[in-house]
Amino acid sequence: MTVFEFLSTYFTTLFYFGMVLLTLIFLGITIGLFYLFRNRRIPKIITSIGLILCIGAIIWFLKTEIRGGIGRQVDDVVFSSDEKILAIGISTYEHAVAPTAALKSATHEVKLWDLNTRKCLITFSGSGDTGSIAISPDGKFLASGGLRSNSVNLWNLATKQEQASLQGHTNSIWSVAFSPDGKKLGSGSLDNTIMLWDVVTGKPMLTFKDSGGVTSIAFSPDGKTLASGSKDATIKLWDTVMGKRLMTFRGHTSGVVSVAFSPDGKLLASGGWDKMVKVWDVATGQEKINFAGHTGTVRSVKFSPNKRILASGSDDNTVKLWDSITEQEIMTIIIPGEEMTMVSSVAFSPDGKIIATGSGYEGFFGPSGSYSGTVRLWDVATGKQQISISHNQFKILDN
Q1: pLDDT in tens, 117-163
Q2: Torsion of CA 372, 398, 376, 118, to 10 degrees
Q3: Domain 69-396, CATH number (from 1.10.3470.10, 1.10.150.20, 2.130.10.10, 3.40.50.720)
């Protein structure tokens, strides 16, 4: 159980029993008043109404427990290299809202949207959640890995069928990434390993042994190096040809959740549970910049195509844009929605003019236990939202 799942269970249980206790107290008072004024007509009518409301509240709580809460979370967003397609990984969860908020079931969908026609072209679905998705550089394949799955799914976008189910990990898969030439597929898992797969044959090529659960991976632009972020607060560089570890970066004080290379491969960005965004010199392994400002876990970091802008998405319901040259914050985009919304993923369009954000766990602590996941497209220059995609709705906003 993650910290978030523990806290959600704790607060939802506290909310449930608190409401039940208040209802029972009110019921006791109502019964006492009903008995006290049993021979008086008007007070008797009022207390009778109160009694009916109490019984109705109890029935509502029981129905809520049976029904549970259902909602969607966006796990990942990815642009195709030709900028025509936006892939969205969505997980759907059903929780027992009370008394434990236990997860009843998890399913996932990967939707590919045509940004020109505004239509959903393909939907892939399965059990478990999505976790991470990636589109091959040639646009022929899509890969997905799940937080509750030990396998990587490889989909053929031409046939719209599953190409292969890659087996080898023994724990949750948090990250998948294609090499720049599209021939290799990397997967990082909490089993402390990174596996490289041959995309054509589906066979494993290399396995790297990490010292902590792997939460994020990224290929360098030349494909010769793979970066990984781990729960042990380290970042490692791996030689994808020789199959050995090159370097270890230390500087985060808690687990690293996201890593990303700059387009020229000279810089590496990272974000983690310590709420920090760091930029590293790949050649020396030295920390160049430490961006502080987020008040929640940094879930996703990405460089713009021109390298200058670095985007970070956080549990604090914001996306921040940073200037990697002046080392200053450019702007903060606040995601509209409920108080507990988190930004789970950010992605720049290939031309760098648009940034996509994926959100989740909106309103999870509400009485219905429901939450929804939304993808929003923003103008990088102005910070204004242009498009909203929620489940099957594609909406262009008037600014």
Answers
A1: 999 999 988 766 778 999 999 999 999 997 777 899 999 999 999 99
A2: 90
A3: 2.130.10.10
